[in-house]
Amino acid sequence: QVQLVESGGGLVQPGGSLRLSCAASGSIFSINTMGWYRQAAGKQRELVAHITSGGSTNYADSVKGRFTISRDYAKNTVYLQMNSLIPEDTAVYYCNWRPTIEPLGSGYWGQGTQVTVSS
After folding, report:
1. What string of DSSP letters covers 77-98?
2. Residue 29: its pLDDT value, please?
3. Of 20, 39, 55, 70, which is least surrounded by CB within 10 A?
4. Smallest Cα–Cα separation from 9: which of 64, 76, 82?
């Protein structure tokens, strides 16, 4: 079992920034991928970004150049720095942890944190 605790969501104006954090604990398999997904109202959950234990990253086209994912390996924590936020970024953001060998969308999930971009 892996437990994920998220923090950092909130309300921000367009053009603003937020930083999400997600700390993992429990039975951490060494070769793993941590990432962020989001689900807007009425839409399917989508991958935002992920980062492997080896440091490889992948981003959705819609966030490239605006969002940065990073990890603190000693703390088993993943971060998502979100800059130049736009209203279309409004969603519930979920942290995900999975063994890298497992498929996208599998593994463990955080409880979700709301991000609202509005003036």
Report:
1. EEEEEE-S--GGG-EEEEEEEE
2. 77
3. 55
4. 82
